[in-house]
Amino acid sequence: MIEWTIEKNKATGFSSKTNTLSSGAYFIHRDVDTGFSSKWSGIWAPQNKLFDYFAFKINNTWLSPADVSKATVRPWKVTYSHEPKNCDFEAKEMIFAADNGVVCLLSLKNTSTEKKEFNLVLEAAANIRTKAEDWHERTYNTEFNKIRKCVRIKSSIGEAVFGAGRLENTDINFTNSEEYKDHHPQSRQRCFVPGAYSIKITLDANEIADIPFIFTKNISDFDILHTTWLVNLNKADTVFANKEHTANISTPVAGLDRAFVSNTHVLNSLVNNAFFGQGMFAGYPWFLEFWSRDTLWSAFGLLDAGEFEEVKNLLRTIAVFQQKQIPTQIILDGTAQYYSKDVDPLFLVVLHRYVKTTGDREFAEELKNTINAIIIGLTVKNGLVSNNPEGTWMDSIERPKTAIDIQALWAKALENQKPGEAIKSKLKLFWSKKDRYFYDTYNEKPEMVKTANVLVPLMFGQIPVMNAVATLKTVKSELSSFFGIQTRGTKERDFNPSGYHTGAVWGLTTGWGACAFLNYDMIDDGIECLKALAYDNDRFGIGALSECVDAATGSLLGCPVQGWSSGLLVHATDSYLFGINADMIKKELGIKPKIPDDWGHMYRHGKKIGTSSFDMTIDRTAYGLKIKIVFDEKNDDITCKLTLPSEYVKITVKGTLKTKNFEGSKAKFRMDEFVEILAKKADV
Asked: Domain check: are 570 and 604 in the same one?
């Protein structure tokens, strides 16, 4: 069971951790001590914020961060345990986000030895604003619906609704006492408290009552959750329990196993259904637009996690907004911006991978006009693709002329085609013999700046081995921090460990690093990158990966929940560590695992390719390796290409019907429902 139980003590860093729960349509961002300490805390229905905070008072005692003893976090719900001093009750808040709102199930226990009456008051502070706003002067109107027992708060830009779910034989009252409050969670905010929402309940000694509270953006969503909140919770429990048991990994690194599963959930939680189509937020709590670059890098992980329909929908939405080029970002109001040079080739790379993984040729045909427009828009001069200075992912700094990552993306997008191979051949221009590293950009007079962007051609295998290994050794010595891969080398001028694009550690660059190291058989270094990502999974946004951190101190610099960080962790693990890459057009399954010398096992459960899924277990034995591949259905039309390290000299494949022997470290065979592979090392 994937779960974090965080006790309230100094060792856990309790006060610095946050949790974000999202259904895509709604999310709640909150501290693990139940506080709402920043302007981003609260309940949101993107693009608008709804509530700054909510708080409960029980018999004149407020539940607060001071009395929280622990937080129990699962990827889709969190439970906060309250133990107030000198009181005759204990309380728990269980929070989850549903498609129609956010639910807080308050469990109240009478800890006395006699029957007692409890008066419970909910204070909900509305702050209906856009994400770009801080303090504002808008006013609110309040309406108490006596039938639904909910409070409806309206302003000129929207509304917010709260109240209890369906309760039998319970006394619910609302006292209107409207109050505007100024407070300063990082920046000045203005919230509105409509009044006191109270419930009276009588409990026997040691009796527990569960009271659901619902927060939504309109009355129709409240109506749905009012009666179906428990169904929604049970559905979420079932969906994730199934994912946890059927789509996960098992390795000697428990933190990596947990991060893999929880971040597949994070990726799903960032998907949002806008009126114009399905999109993906870049991160919580403030990247509430559909950034194409972030979406497409995240899509690598979504594909490896088997979320094929989501990737298809995301690509379709991006394609709808194409206007000579792929949009840089799509706003929820249906407008878009266009200025990035890497999103066009990245779109083609992800589309190609989608088609290969699923076998869905028809979708490529559907996007034929988009594909042609992207290729027609490609301008190559002297074999290289130019970019505007702010047109790369490092948009806070200028990278003039030809960025190496953009060349690599175009070479990958047009792989095995003349233009792509021509661009790939020009990567040699970026090589510095003196520094044995690659220039970040290539100009008439190239200037050596060691950045992490060289990891893009390395993860795609576009660099000759000798140059690649030399470069990766420098990455290890000059760009590696305990927390992951820095954007810039420590010896470079203008290096700043907290510089956004000039030295900070990013989940994106660390994910690229994991792929690159593993791709060139520097396995231990690749594992270190994965461990760094897994370590981040427990530090800030619990169960999620952050945007970027200070390379020296590890302190959070960006968003605590970032989609492409999650996507690259899943992708590096599945496609590079386990080495699983399918081509369902050719009906081929490629498996090229990278097995650390000190690992005794590697298991991948529920891996989806095409319309099927399979389990793969790899165990180290006295003679070498024992590998089992078990499909959920008959798949004897798929050819498996297995590639093991060169020290393996004989592979025996036992299928359901026959056994085949292969000399060397490679084997090619037809799949069956069940295949057992024995690989023998040279010295055994």
From this structure: no
- 568 and 656, same domain (yes or no): no
Indicate if the pLDDT at residue 26 is higher than 70: yes
What is the span of the domain harbouring residue 126? 4-241
What CATH number corresponds to the domain at position 322?
1.50.10.10
DSSP letter string over 229-263?
Answer: HHHHHHHHHHHHHHHHHHSEEE-S-HHHHHHHHHH
Same domain, 441 and 466: yes
236 and 251 together in one domain? no
Whether 443 shows a pLDDT value over 90: the answer reads no
SS3 string of 268-298? HHCEEEECCEEEECCEECCECCEEHHHHHHH
The answer to whether residues 541 and 607 belong to one domain is no
Residues in the chain: 684
Task: Name the more confident of 400 and 315.
Answer: 315
Element containing residue 369 per DSSP (H, E):
helix 368-376
**Residue 256 and residue 224 in one domain:** no
- Say whether pLDDT at 246 is over 90: no
Q: Which tens digit of pLDDT belongs to each residue from 324-353?
A: 899 999 999 999 999 999 999 999 999 999
**Predicted confidence band of residue 243 (pLDDT cuts 50, 70, 90):** confident
pLDDT confidence of residue 576: 98
Cα-flanking dihedrals φ and ψ of residue 411, to 5°?
-60, -40
| 9: pLDDT strictly greater than 90 | no
Query: Three-state DSSP class for 88?
Result: coil
Residue located via tokens 């956010």 = 102
Q: Write down which residue in 577, 606, 621 finishes a domain.
A: 577
Q: How confident is the model at residue 11 (pLDDT cuts 50, 70, 90)?
A: low
Q: Residue 504 and residue 548: Cα distance in Å, rounded?
A: 6
Q: What is the pLDDT of residues 58-71, one digit of tens each?
A: 999 999 999 999 99
pLDDT band for 245, please (50, 70, 90 cuts). Answer: confident
Write the DSSP assignment of 464-509 as a string of letters.
-HHHHHHHHHHIIIIIEETTEEBSB-TTSTT--TT-TTTT-EEHHH
CA dihedral of residues 106, 109, 114, 119 (deg, nearest 10): -20
Decide: 76 and 103 in contact? Cβ < 8 Å.
no
Domain count, the chain: 3
Terminal alpha carbon distance of the chain: 38
Other C-beta atoms closer than 10 Å to the C-beta of 619 total 13
Beta strands in 281-432 (DSSP E): 283-284, 290-291, 329-330, 336-337, 380-381, 384-385, 402-403, 431-432
Residue 447 shares a structural domain with residue 473: yes
Same domain flag for 131 and 193: yes
Q: Can you tell me the distance from the alpha carbon of 561 to that of 544, in angstroms, rounded to the nearest whole number?
A: 6
Which residues face 559 on adjacent strands? none
pLDDT tens for 622-642 read 999 999 999 988 877 899 999
Residues 439, 449: contact at Cβ < 8 Å? yes
| Domain end position, chosen among 241, 259, 293 | 241
Rounded Cα–Cα distance for residues 221 and 311 (Å) = 27
Q: How many CB atoms lie within 10 A of CB 622?
A: 6
- The mean pLDDT of 434-444, rounded to a whole number, is 91
Confidence of residue 13 (pLDDT cuts 50, 70, 90): low
- pTM passes above 0.90: yes
Which CATH number do you get for residue 220? 2.70.98.40
Q: What CATH number did the domain enclosing 669 receive? A: 2.60.420
